[in-house]
Amino acid sequence: MLDSTEIINRIRLLGTDNIGAISFYKLLGRYHSASNALEHLPPQYVPPSFGQAEQSFLKTQKQGITLLHFDSPTYPKNLKQLRDAPPLLYVLGNSDLLNASPAVSIVGSRNASVNGRKLASRIAFELSEQNVMVISGMARGIDSSAHKGAMYANNQQGRTIAVLGTGVDIPYPKENTALYQQIITQGAVISEFPLGTTPQAQNFPRRNRLVSALSDGTLVIEAGLSSGSLITARLALEQGRDVFAVPGSPIDSRSAGTNKLIKDGAFLVESAEDILSHLSFSANRQIPAPCPAPEAELFDIPLDKAPNNVDISTEQTAQSLLDCLNYDGVYVDELIRLTGLDSTELAAQLLDLELDNRIERLPGNKIALLK
Fold first, then answer.
1. How far apart (Å, rounded) are the C-alpha atoms in residues 83 and 235?
2. What confidence tens digit (pLDDT) does each residue in 15-49 have?
């Protein structure tokens, strides 16, 4: 167990210009502690003062941030395999989840299509229902949809992990602040960057290696040829992880990267079951069969006039939900009673409507039409 002085000195050592993770471990191996390493630094290396690092350390305690060092019992085992594993990891939320297994990361375009976002949320939802940890980077588009889908699972208590390219105390992008808070409540937000680190372009590729390393496999949904998601896929391969990709139209630039991944050997994925089967989880974690469609009268079709094998589309189901809602909000339990949908299918339908900006979630587990 490290004492606070050693942890503060590790913060100082990592805060020194031109000392990264690999240099840190070499210094620690030679001098056996950060305190000794600081004393032997050449004069051109100027670490932050003890007082500055102490303020950062005290801030973690004040804000309820868990600070994991490489020797911590709960430090993620998957990250320990990295040559440049973060010497310090800042965690907001449940740090025990960082060793959850199985785990799958879902990444893709920030400028994702509606169908891409819906597919990301649906796959994340189904994986989370089968107790697979969903990991992503909390970016716009595919990342955000994956986090939301995962948290809608298990009666809206699903867990997910967000890996940030900023300090763990800096939600980015700002529009995801509410999502950030919800992830902290239901899962964990982590970062290797010091508190207060603002968005910097060079930090996001570094963040990607943690996204892939924490996972057993990485799924890419919509990615251009120059997308950062392809960096994550490449890192996953280098780390010995599986890479999955959803195919797309050859005339959509957002699918050029995923199609290339498949040509290069990535596993083609159309549903969560494809991932579960490949990772050999399906024997114990079968995706449930689709719920039966609601009764015909839900859509005002007289039973005696309903044709055989009525085709009830997703849009009809969505409209039936919207018809049950108002601007003041309706309890989820009441929606289950009114629609005849079970909680799992209802959660999936509500997620689609939320992604379409047609509804909003209110305190007290209520759903309302978006004003």
1. 13
2. 998 888 888 998 998 899 999 999 988 888 899 99
* 106 and 238 fall within a common domain: yes
CB 176 within 8 A of CB 136: no
Task: Say if residues 242 and 97 touch (Cβ distance below 8 Å).
Answer: no
**Mean pLDDT of all residues in the chain?**
86
> Left (φ > 0), alpha (ψ -120 to 50) or beta: where does 365 sit?
left
Instruction: Of 111-115, 164-168, 224-228, 343-347, give the lowest mean pLDDT range.
Output: 343-347
Please say whether the beta carbons of 242 and 267 come within 8 A. Answer: yes
Helix segments in 176-313, DSSP class H: 177-186, 203-213, 228-238, 256-263, 272-278
Type of residue found at 203: N
**Chain-centre distance of CA 47, in angstroms?**
33
Measured distance CA(246)–CA(2) in Å, rounded: 45
Whether the link from the prior residue into 86 is cis, omega within 30° of 0, is no
Task: Quickly count: other Cβ atoms within 10 Å of residue 175's Cβ.
Answer: 10
H or E, element range at 218? strand 217-221
What is the extent of the structural domain holding 49?
A: 1-62
Supply the pLDDT for residue 351: 64
Match 């992604």 to its residue by tokens: 355
- Report the alpha-carbon distance of residue 212 to residue 358 in Å, rounded: 33
pTM of the full predicted structure? 0.79
Q: CA-CA distance, 227 to 222, in Å (whole number)? A: 9
CB 239 within 8 A of CB 213: yes
CATH number of the structural domain spanning residue 54: 1.10.150
Both 49 and 12 in one domain: the answer is yes
